[in-house]
Structures
1.
Amino acid sequence: DTGVSQNPRHKITKRGQNVTFRCDPISEHNRLYWYRQTLGQGPEFLTYFQNEAQLEKSRLLSDRFSAERPKGSFSTLEIQRTEQGDSAMYLCASGGRTSGMEQYFGPGTRLTVT
Amino acid sequence: GDSVTQMEGPVTLSEEAFLTINCTYTATGYPSLFWYVQYPGEGLQLLLKATKADDKGSNKGFEATYRKETTSFHLEKGSVQVSDSAVYFCALANTGGFKTIFGAGTRLFVKA
C-alpha cells in the first residue's frame, strides 16, 4: 500500500491554458473522489467514480472541467481555459469496498493561474 | 442540502489542556460522520468515525459521539499535546457515500 499519489504537486499556468492532473489511488480501491480546496476552507466535492463509472458530479464542476477514470484505475482531472478563480488545491481521495465510507487522501495538486 | 458547521478557529491551548471542537450537521437520512485531520505539510487523514446514532469514535486519545438528537459530533481530547497542532475537519457522508461534505476546518495551536 503506497497510498494515493497525485501529479504534479504544483502547477503554474497562464489564464486560458488547459491543465491536466493525475491521481493514482490505492490499488485495490474502487471508489475515487476529486475535491477542490481553497485557503481556509474545507474540501469541496467535485466528482465521484465507482470503478470506471462517474456516478456524481457537483454543480461546481462547470463545462470547463472534465474527469475520467479509464479502466477503473488512475484518474485524470482536466480544466480547460483556466481562470484565476480556478487557483486552488485539487485533492484526490480513494476508498475501498471494505473501508466503509472513509477516504484516503493524496497530497494534492496546487494550481496557480496567473 | 446537507451541510456541516464547525467552530471557527484558531483555537489556542496550552499543553495538557482539554480540547473541544464543536461540529453540528444538517442531513437527510442517517449519515456517517467523520473527523479528518491535516497536520502541517501533510494531506488529510481520517482521525475517527461513527456510522450510527450514539456510536463513539475514538483514536489517538480523541473521541466524538454521534448525537442524533442534537445533530452534533463534537471532537474532544482530555489532554492535548504540541503534536496535536493541526487543522481538524468535521465531515459527513450520506447513504451510498457518493459525496462527503466537509466543514470549513478548525485550526488548533498547542503551546508548550
2.
Amino acid sequence: DAGVTQSPTHLIKTRGQHVTLRCSPISGHKSVSWYQQVLGQGPQFIFQYYEKEERGRGNFPDRFSARQFPNYSSELNVNALLLGDSALYLCASSLGRTNTEAFFGQGTRLTVV
Amino acid sequence: GQNIDQPTEMTATEGAIVQINCTYQTSGFNGLFWYQQHAGEAPTFLSYNVLDGLEEKGRFSSFLSRSKGYSYLLLKELQMKDSASYLCAVREGTNAGKSTFGDGTTLTVKP
C-alpha cells in the first residue's frame, strides 16, 4: 500500500508568489492535517480536514488556506509568499477524525527567495 | 498557552542506553506521542501514551506521568541509525490530526 504522498518534493518560489502543495492520504484515510516545520523546530499545526470540512486551524494568517476533495486528497495554498514561509510542509493522514495515529508524508520543501 | 520542553541535543555511545525527557504544559491532554525524524525526512511514529506508566516496544520504551506533565523516551542498545531528532507531541483534544510538537531532541550516537 502506498503511504502518504506529497507533491512536489521541492519547490522554489519568489516573494509575493502563490504556491499550491498537494497531498494524497493513505487509502481509506479520511482525515488530512497540514503542518509547517521550520528548520530546527518541531512541526506547527496549520489545518485539519475531515470529510471535506475544516475541523481545526492553527495560528496561521489568512494567506494560508486548504481544501479537501471527494477522494480525500488535499491541497494547501499559500498566497503572497514571504521569506519566512520557507519550511518543510508536512501532510499527515489518519483513518478517522479521532484515531490515535497519524502518518506523515515525506513533505514538500518550500524555499522562498 | 501550550509549552513542550525537550533538551535540544544529546550524545550517546553505540550500545548504550539514553533517556530523552519531555515536559509539557498544555490546556488539555489526550495523549502523548513520540516521533523519530531523520534529517530531511518525515517524522515516523514511535509510541503513544495516554495512561500513566511505561509502554515497551522492542528497544524503545516510553513513560508518562500525567500528574507531573512528564514523559520520557528510553532507547536501549543504541545503534548508529538511531541518530535522529526525537519529537515529543501532545494531543490536546480528540482531534487525531492536531498535535502540539516540541522542537525535538537531536540525538547523536557515536561509535
